[in-house]
């Protein structure tokens, strides 16, 4: 049912539109990509690939993806900060994030990795047009785009999300014996976020960083609907350089904060806080290094089996119940990473 095209743009292609051009809408659909077939796309074919063949194909392409702009910027082995953006299909937000990254001081010294769970030619064109730093793309091999009607997607025989236990037992649907702690059944589009996050972390820390000898780098985690300040990397470097005096035992740096009002933003520009890491406060613009990842990875079973589709709440559970001590964070008082999305998993105000 699916075949793969190369993820690379032809060097001889001439585009009439801007490299940041895209439809004026907040997300990309398969219909959009049919109108613009360029880059890495997935389409139906009379000769279906097996599930295993699809996964192997994407794993091969991930392993062999070219790092862009190596002829323009620093040597890869000199990178000290890696930026990782988890991307779905909200291209208008992604365009804003890329624009703010472009204006950030020291951006040319970073490796920028986009991790996708949705393959879009339009998004691919947007990303391959970036020229201000080293760029790499990876693709989550188990996405519901690839497996829409079989696990990890939604099997037609899965239980309806809000069916009660009696209804599910009567239907004898696939997972009728296993509702979550709220009595609801698995929703593939929600659980994918946590699965993608965990796959991404493993692939980057245990794959990319080791492969390119970047084991001393700090990794800043971003999402497609984030917005960064021009000094976010400058602040990150200052914190890393002075971490031993600020908080030597802190394992996390947080550049984001959910402010309800910005009256004290200017006053707090040069202020930091030291706190126990908490999911809903310190998950945005969160940065960790290999040492912290190794602690988290040792709690793989708890993270994966904890009954919550949010990666950050699962990580909080790991911090509280599995690690030798709770994670501690150095957090900015005035955020350098801001959430601008008003249409997504938790909110549905979609007037973008």
From TrEMBL:
<keyword id="KW-0464">Manganese</keyword>
<comment type="pathway">
    <text>Protein modification; protein glycosylation.</text>
</comment>
<feature type="binding site">
    <location>
        <begin position="86"/>
        <end position="90"/>
    </location>
    <ligand>
        <name>substrate</name>
    </ligand>
</feature>
<keyword id="KW-1015">Disulfide bond</keyword>
<keyword id="KW-0479">Metal-binding</keyword>
<keyword id="KW-0735">Signal-anchor</keyword>
<dbReference type="GO" id="GO:0009312">
    <property type="term" value="P:oligosaccharide biosynthetic process"/>
</dbReference>
<dbReference type="Pfam" id="PF05060">
    <property type="entry name" value="MGAT2"/>
</dbReference>
<keyword id="KW-0812">Transmembrane</keyword>
<feature type="binding site">
    <location>
        <begin position="192"/>
        <end position="196"/>
    </location>
    <ligand>
        <name>substrate</name>
    </ligand>
</feature>
<dbReference type="GO" id="GO:0005795">
    <property type="term" value="C:Golgi stack"/>
</dbReference>
<dbReference type="GO" id="GO:0006487">
    <property type="term" value="P:protein N-linked glycosylation"/>
</dbReference>
<feature type="disulfide bond">
    <location>
        <begin position="159"/>
        <end position="173"/>
    </location>
</feature>
<dbReference type="GO" id="GO:0046872">
    <property type="term" value="F:metal ion binding"/>
</dbReference>
<protein>
    <recommendedName>
        <fullName>Alpha-1,6-mannosyl-glycoprotein 2-beta-N-acetylglucosaminyltransferase</fullName>
        <ecNumber>2.4.1.143</ecNumber>
    </recommendedName>
</protein>
<feature type="binding site">
    <location>
        <position position="117"/>
    </location>
    <ligand>
        <name>substrate</name>
    </ligand>
</feature>
<keyword id="KW-0325">Glycoprotein</keyword>
<keyword id="KW-0333">Golgi apparatus</keyword>
<dbReference type="InterPro" id="IPR007754">
    <property type="entry name" value="GlcNAc_II"/>
</dbReference>
<feature type="disulfide bond">
    <location>
        <begin position="247"/>
        <end position="250"/>
    </location>
</feature>
<dbReference type="GO" id="GO:0008455">
    <property type="term" value="F:alpha-1,6-mannosylglycoprotein 2-beta-N-acetylglucosaminyltransferase activity"/>
</dbReference>
<feature type="binding site">
    <location>
        <position position="339"/>
    </location>
    <ligand>
        <name>Mn(2+)</name>
    </ligand>
</feature>
<keyword id="KW-0328">Glycosyltransferase</keyword>
<keyword id="KW-0472">Membrane</keyword>
<feature type="binding site">
    <location>
        <position position="225"/>
    </location>
    <ligand>
        <name>Mn(2+)</name>
    </ligand>
</feature>
<keyword id="KW-0808">Transferase</keyword>
<comment type="similarity">
    <text>Belongs to the glycosyltransferase 16 (GT16) protein family.</text>
</comment>
<dbReference type="InterPro" id="IPR029044">
    <property type="entry name" value="Nucleotide-diphossugar_trans"/>
</dbReference>
<keyword id="KW-1133">Transmembrane helix</keyword>
<dbReference type="GO" id="GO:0000139">
    <property type="term" value="C:Golgi membrane"/>
</dbReference>
<feature type="disulfide bond">
    <location>
        <begin position="299"/>
        <end position="322"/>
    </location>
</feature>
């Amino acid at each position: 049912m699916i075949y793969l095209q190369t993820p690379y743009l032809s060097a001889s292609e001439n585009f009439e539109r801007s490299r940041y051009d895209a439809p004026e809408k907040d997300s990309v659909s398969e219909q959009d990509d049919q109108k613009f077939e360029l880059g890495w796309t997935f389409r139906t074919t009379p000769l279906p690939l097996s599930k295993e063949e699809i996964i192997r194909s994407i794993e091969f392409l991930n392993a062999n993806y070219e790092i862009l702009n190596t002829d323009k910027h620093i040597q890869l082995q000199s990178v000290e900060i890696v930026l990782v953006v988890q991307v779905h299909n909200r291209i208008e937000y992604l365009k804003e994030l890329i624009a703010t990254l472009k204006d950030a001081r020291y951006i040319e010294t970073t490796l920028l990795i986009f991790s996708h769970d949705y393959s879009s030619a339009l998004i691919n064109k947007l990303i391959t047009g970036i020229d201000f730093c080293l760029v790499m793309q990876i693709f989550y091999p188990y996405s519901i785009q690839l497996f829409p009607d079989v696990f990890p997607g939604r099997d037609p025989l899965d239980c309806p999300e809000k069916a009660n236990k009696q209804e599910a037992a009567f239907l004898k649907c696939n997972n009728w014996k296993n509702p979550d702690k709220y009595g609801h059944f698995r929703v593939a589009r929600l659980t994918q976020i946590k699965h993608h996050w965990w796959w991404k972390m493993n692939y980057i820390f245990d794959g990319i960083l080791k492969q390119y000898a970047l084991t001393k780098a700090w990794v800043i985690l971003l999402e497609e609907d984030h917005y960064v300040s021009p000094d976010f990397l400058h602040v990150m470097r200052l914190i890393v350089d002075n971490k031993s005096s600020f908080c030597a035992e802190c394992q996390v740096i947080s550049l984001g904060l959910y402010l309800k009002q910005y009256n004290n933003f200017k006053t707090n520009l040069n202020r930091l806080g030291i706190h126990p890491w908490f999911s809903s406060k310190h998950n945005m613009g969160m940065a960790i290094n290999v040492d912290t990842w190794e602690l988290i990875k040792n709690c793989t079973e708890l993270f994966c089996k904890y009954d919550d589709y949010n990666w950050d709440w699962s990580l909080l559970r790991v911090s509280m119940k599995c690690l030798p001590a709770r994670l501690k964070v150095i957090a900015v008082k005035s955020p350098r990473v801001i959430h601008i999305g008003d249409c997504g998993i938790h909110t549905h105000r979609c007037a973008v």
